[in-house]
Design a protein that fits this description.
MetI-like fold; about 250 residues; mainly alpha; 10 helices; about 0% strand
């Protein structure tokens, strides 16, 4: 059996079990796939939620901004700590400890400072994406031979040239892994932030549908959000493959 056929068999089995279990439960709480499909069609056709595209674009913009900030902050802080071993040894355990704290505990404070608009969702996505990127850059810089950095500086290379010509090639594979993890967490942070409290976005629509017991619409919205998440992960995986070919 090929991999595609095996995956199709698993998906068919899951859908069959879902259909059977949902029909045996409370229809307000459990919805079978046969009921989700019409709701998904109405959703994509913009009949049930005419402003769906606006919410999708808003969520996508929040993710893009949060991730861009996480990359800029993570690469900057990681290179600063990695370039100074004393600072790296002092602050790396603190970063790891903060990364281990469940991120959701920070969200009430973010809502207090930034309100219910997009800023708090961007801040939450940034917070989740910042730590894995920073730790990946910090770990990557430690893998680079320090003598190469010393030689580059002795020949008058600027800090930007040292990063582009020496640090980046040496830590690229570690960096790309951290960037992919940071993207996934930034997406999760933005969407979870919208679910917990927002005025617009896919998370807001999901929360609205579930609060009104529109379970079929709720599942359809989750599926649309899942497509958004999977698309971002596929793009990140393509970049990771290119980086892996370059480093091997």
């Amino acid at each position: 059996m090929t991999t595609s056929a095996f995956r199709l068999a698993i998906l068919s089995g899951v859908l069959a079990l879902w259909e059977i279990a949902a029909r045996a439960g409370n229809p307000l709480l459990y919805v079978p796939p046969s009921a989700v499909l019409p709701s998904l069609v109405n959703l994509v056709a913009l009949r049930s939620y005419p402003d769906l595209l606006e919410h999708v674009l808003l969520t996508a913009r929040e993710i893009a901004v949060a991730y861009a900030l996480a990359v800029a902050g993570g690469v900057g802080v990681g290179c600063a700590l990695g370039g100074h071993r004393v600072l790296g040894r002092a602050y790396a355990p603190m970063l790891a400890a903060l990364y281990a704290v469940p991120a959701v505990v920070w969200y009430p404070s973010l809502m207090l400072f930034f309100g219910l608009d997009a800023a708090s969702k961007i801040a939450f996505g940034f917070l989740l994406g910042f730590f894995p990127i920073t730790l990946a850059v910090l770990a990557g810089t430690r893998q680079v031979n320090p003598h190469l950095v010393t030689v580059a500086r002795s020949f008058g290379a600027s800090p930007l040239a040292v990063f582009a010509k020496v640090l980046l090639p040496g830590m690229l594979f570690t960096l790309v892994g951290g960037l992919r993890t940071g993207l996934a967490l930034a997406v999760i942070g933005v969407i979870v932030g919208e679910v917990l409290g927002a005025k617009a976005g896919m998370g807001t629509l999901i929360n609205h549908a579930y609060g009104l017991f529109r379970t079929a619409d709720y599942v359809a919205l989750v599926l649309v959000t899942l497509v958004l998440i999977v698309t971002s992960d596929v793009l990140a995986s393509l970049v990771e493959r290119r980086a892996r070919r370059w480093t091997t």
